[in-house]
Amino acid sequence: MNRGNADGGRGGGVNLPVVRGHNEALVLDLLRAAGPVGLGRAGLAARTGLTPQAVSKITARLAAEGLVAEAGRDASTGGKPRTRLRLVPGARHAVGVHLDRDELRAVRVDLAGGVVAEWSGPLDFGAGPEVVLDAVVRAVARVADGAGAPARLLGVGVAAPGPLDWRGGVLGRVTGFPGWEGFPLREVLVGRLGVAVVVDKDTNAGVAAGGPAGDGAGSCVYLHVGTGLGAGLRLDGAVYRGARSGAGEFGHQVLLLDGPRCRCGGRGCLEVLCLEAVARGDLAGAARVLGEGAANLVALLDVDRVLLGGRVVAGAPEVFVRGVREALAARSLTADPPAVGLAPAGVAEGAAELVVGRLFGGG
Question: Bridge-partner residues for 160, per DSSP?
Fold first, then answer.
């Protein structure tokens, strides 16, 4: 795999206020995974391969920045009790925004991925950039209030319908909204907000939403069913976007030749078949269609897990999990088909994780 296309999006001219060196990011990531219990310096040295002296210098710098604090002491074994260190979740925040075709949702999260503020409201994506940008700026202001000093806000992650160029944050020909093609969303928002901005597809944010709990680790696909249908791919632990940012256009695979017309211009696409079943109230049928598409994807990628999300799934989670699980079991070419479950967090949370994750060497 070309790792340049799955590096978590560290390119694109985004300069975050805090840029960690590799070793500092590694230490922070271990402390995030350890949670409130924390880890001792000796444990950090053993897990990173760094010398105890190097770990002491790194943790001292992180403590000076307010990112690390003491978590208590281990029981004495005859010598001086060793101090454990923990991440300070509230030391920094990030805002995540999900631009759906008819709704905007914004959240502010801490370094542990916890949501500390959120807001949602209606949105007309078809009204065009000026109206949508005004709505984004207002939403960010609402949830960012209380984040403290500006330096505590790492940036804003924006998840939008694809296709789009995640490197430059420029939208492509969004299905049903051709007027957005070529719009430099990231650049304009940086000017309006005055902070670092990351722009990515909603499905890529969805697959990034595992965050510090590791629920998005390994190889998995995230299938989003809402006003549209798409997939986010995490391969070998990294979000995979493709050479031209086009990976994950899952909804436009053709399942029925000469089937109903899809808004992309094709016929018999998975998206139109699934959403038509939803519209007529046949959720079990929609889940079967989704499962067949998922089986095609699993046969190609051989992933460990399939995660489901989006408002349609949220309305009937058991129906969709069961339908996709049954389709994968019926068509599996191996004895152990991938596990199927619900995504651990929403797209807005995943957009924030695309910002927060960079502090820990990922994204």
Answer: 201
